[in-house]
């Protein structure tokens, strides 16, 4: 498996590592043949198919870093915390699998009751429909006994960050991963981020994938727990455009895969 920023092998990402990003600025991996420096590769776990393994470098590693990136290498989470996961896309479902296997309590939000049902079948402890429950942050507080979530996957951005600050536990960690609902604050009450962060002693952490040693740490965890990434649908190589359209439609649960060769 190719690591995203090819020179990011350990520790905090630096500006120079970002010049080695696959897809940005280097060519991406939607191709049939590609040569990589050995340093930029991680071995596929024996029990996984290629269709499953191709989900690990971006979605799974990002989720792994959201849960474990602030902990020492080799000492991943072992239960006792609650994780709030926004949505049911690739990063979110990888996060659910990792958190559940680590014994953490999980809360998943989605716009679809059908997807929430699937999340519960995978072990999600609480699920909330963010379309029908606009005040989902109050629901998070309720199901956590007014404590809030210890770790939040902030995938929404504009329409979710303020709510995340309202349902984070004291001392909790908000991982800024994506901005699926936009980049600009749309809330009426525009409290500054510094006030929101100090109010509950929150750590706000930007996530930019992760380094190779963390990727290997995660792969061992997947092996130990025999976690198989959730592939919603697999497209043929010459159907890549349809695959992207399907991804943008948001109908998927987990990952969308393009198979390079039969
Ligand atoms: N920082 C990094 O290193 C990194 C790495 C990978 C991805 N990302 C970013 O992280 C985000 C998620 O990536 P992904 O690959 O998981 O994307 P994805 O598979 O396309 O996720 C789409 C899902 O996100 C959910 N969603 C959309 N708007 C939402 C909202 N307002 N509130 C809550 N959930 C919402 C929807 O779930 P439902 O259908 O269930 O409603 C949607 O199906 C993207 O913005 C992506 O660019 C960042």
TrEMBL record:
SUPFAM superfamilies linked to this entry: GroES-like (SSF50129), NAD(P)-binding Rossmann-fold domains (SSF51735)
Report the Gene3D superfamilies cross-referenced here: Medium-chain alcohol dehydrogenases, catalytic domain, NAD(P)-binding Rossmann-like Domain
Any idea where the Enoyl reductase (ER) domain is?
2-258
User: Where is the organism placed in the taxonomic lineage, from the top?
Assistant: Eukaryota, Fungi, Dikarya, Ascomycota, Pezizomycotina
Protein name from the UniProt record: Enoyl reductase (ER) domain-containing protein
MF terms from GO for this chain are: oxidoreductase activity
Q: Which residues form the signal peptide?
A: none
Matching entries from PANTHER family are given as: OXIDOREDUCTASE (EUROFUNG), PTHR45033
InterPro entries, alphabetized: ADH-like_C, ER, GroES-like_sf, NAD(P)-bd_dom_sf, Zinc_ADH-like
The record's annotation in CDD domains points to: MDR7
SMART domains per record:
PKS_ER (SM00829)
| Coiled-coil zones | none
């Amino acid at each position: 498996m190719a690591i995203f920023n090819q020179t990011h092998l350990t520790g905090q990402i630096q500006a120079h590592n970002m010049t080695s990003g696959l897809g940005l600025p280097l060519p991406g991996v939607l191709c049939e043949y590609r040569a990589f420096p050995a340093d930029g590769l991680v071995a596929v776990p024996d029990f996984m198919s290629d269709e499953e393994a191709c989900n690990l470098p971006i979605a799974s590693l990002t989720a792994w870093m959201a849960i474990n990136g602030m902990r020492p290498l080799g000492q991943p989470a072992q239960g006792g915390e609650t994780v709030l996961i926004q949505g049911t896309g690739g990063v979110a479902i990888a996060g659910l699998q990792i958190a559940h296997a680590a014994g953490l309590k999980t809360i998943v939000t989605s716009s679809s009751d059908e997807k929430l049902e699937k999340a519960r079948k995978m072990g999600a402890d609480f699920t909330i429909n963010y379309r029908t429950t606009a005040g989902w942050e109050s629901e998070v507080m309720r199901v956590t006994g007014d404590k809030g979530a210890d770790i939040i996957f902030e995938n929404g951005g504009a329409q979710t960050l303020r709510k995340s600050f309202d349902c984070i536990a004291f001392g909790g960690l908000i991982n800024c991963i994506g901005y699926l609902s936009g980049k600009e604050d749309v809330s009426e009450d525009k409290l500054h981020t510094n006030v929101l962060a100090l109010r509950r002693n929150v750590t706000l952490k930007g996530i930019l994938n992760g380094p190779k040693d963390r990727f290997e740490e995660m792969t061992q965890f997947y092996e130990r727990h025999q976690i198989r990434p959730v592939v919603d649908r697999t497209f043929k190589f010459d159907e890549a455009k349809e695959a992207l359209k399907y991804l943008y439609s948001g109908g998927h649960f987990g990952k969308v895969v393009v198979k390079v060769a039969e």
